[in-house]
Protein 1
Amino acid sequence: MQQDAFQPSTGQRIHLVTGKLAEPMLCHIAGELEQRHDVRCTVGVAPITVAALMTPRWLKRKLDIPPQTTDVVLPGFICLDPEQRASVISELQNDVDRGDQVRWWIGPKDCRELHEWFGGESMPVELTDHGIEIIAEINHAPRLSMQDFRSAVGHLRDQGADRIDIGCDPSSACQNIADYVRVVLDEGMPASIDTFDIPETERAVAAGADLVLSVNASNRFAAMDWGCEVVAIPDVPNDINSLKHTVDDLRQHGVCVRADAILEPIGSGFFASLQRYAEFRKQEPTIKMMMGIGNLTELTDVDSAGVNLILLAICEELRIESVLTTQVINWARSSVRECDHARRLLRYAVGMQTPPKRISDALVMLRDPKLRPMPDGALDELATTIRDTNYRIFADDSLIHLVSSGLHLSDRDAFAMFDALLKSSRGDSMDPGHAFYLGYEMAKATIAMQLGKQYEQDRALNWGMLTVEEDAHRIERTARRRKGSNRKGSGDQESD
């Protein structure tokens, strides 16, 4: 029978059961468990994609327990009700071949929690490896002063860009484009030039730009003399044959080339353009490729993080080694940071053949990964048990709560609740600083309530990678007031 807690001991032979989807991840974890606990682990993969769809009746027909197994660990989804687990284990013990010779366990729902379930600490996921180069474009760069351009280069570098692309002005060539290239190089970044103007390209390459965007039938004849890598594109976006002709011509002349099939915006052939990337990769399995993802992030009314992750997932699976992105429009202003984290997350997920879930929540910004609601009646009980007059603020899906000794106010409208507080017996002691603090915290609670975020008083809301931590203002104010009260010989407590 299952015991209260799993305590691995040296020499145990543990059989871990899962579905097909989690097999690569579980095999990796099994190896870590063996090293950490000096046990032997085998992985049993049931003929089902997702372990959550297993039932005890189905599993007992499919389960094959290896010889010398001492313990079998089933995924937590096999029985979510703790009170029924003993009967489920008893059923499997009686009906599975060799089931009465092993100890049975129902483990966590997520195999990534096995380290903690084994009595240890969770293994940190190292999101350091990546395979996608981020090319950050500065649009209309020649319109910027050198000081502003240098500042933009440093900002993009610090956000995670690997290369700076100098976006030129299509209406007029920049005579001092070499100065812009030198700024990029001075900031420690490789430079690319984005122009079809041949003399402008030549000046940029002579100054040190080592990648040219873009080349097609109109200018590929000149690329033979530039002595640098170029990005080949179709003559028109949907003409993949013209892309192949340009690539073949450049390669025949010894030009290093990467191909971009041109990502089209939604409404202009978006899905067809994705198919072109896949088709070209199938035809050319070894050539370097690039995808300009700004056509989607800049031209779609949606926060960019999710769009960037999906596009980089396509690039990771198609082995598209570089992306060109911009962060001009406000909803895409953190695109480079998002791409930098997404490429690391996706390299790990694809390498482990596991969904990118519960690995990192840095890109979960609008809502929170998980909420921790207060139990029913807990706030009323809190109001009757606490003795001090400090104010505690809570938020759930529908209400903001203000709780203190003998007081529990709640409302969807923070203004209405604050008005009720002023009309209560506590209202006369409200000073301006205290009112400002409560108003600030209730504004955060309102945002949390509206978006479905976890609110914790005196702590910053969780905005993923964009979170800016806050000082503990309530604690500091309370400590200062109490210190001052003690100097005066007063025992009164701050109503905070």
Note: The chain has 17 helices and 15 strands.
Protein 2
Amino acid sequence: MNYLLPHLSTDFSEVRDTTLGALVRHRLLSKILSGDLTPGQVLREPEIVEELQVSRVPVREALKQLESMGLVVARKNRGVSVRTLTDKEVSDLYAFRALLEGFAGQQISLRGAAERTALAARLDLLCGEMDDAISQDDAKKYYHSNLRFHWAFIEVLGNEEIENTYREITQKLHLARFKNLQDLAHRKQSNDEHKLIVAALRDAGTPAVPKSCAALLEAHVKQALVRLRQI
């Protein structure tokens, strides 16, 4: 799930110039994305200061940054808490995600056979990982492989603006998606759809293929929202 987090360099010359606020934001974002901090949970400044051994200034800076990212909300006299998305927000984000993934699938399908075959092989491995996770009834393992499956299309597309936008959408949606994949039947159906997407990618341009990779990707994301609503 590393692609969901802002990049922090291991180069000490760059780390030296990284603000404490950015480091605190990174830590809090990691806790939100791991589920250690859940929607509605209050983020108490004194507790964060004590835990991270920093002053209040970088903590406030980090919380403001997370608020601008749409991941926490500040309310007068109620403090700051992890944001809970409304049903409409979840639906809107899924629709946007479907649009981006469909576009990525469409563009990649137009590329050469070698590039498509290489991506298909990578996706096959991830489908295998998800099959293993299903057999082990390991929702967390499945979730991480699922994230990597979808990110592979965005990464191979190579458009930095789309990468940034997709990352923001995934950060906001991750708890809803993880909840969706807690259901074993949903995981099985999801991975069956993944395999159809890979087959369509591998056979892109073949007239006999009933549905394009782009159409299957978009339908898969929309179907994920349907499954979430069933929970």
Note: The chain has two domains: 2-82, 87-230.
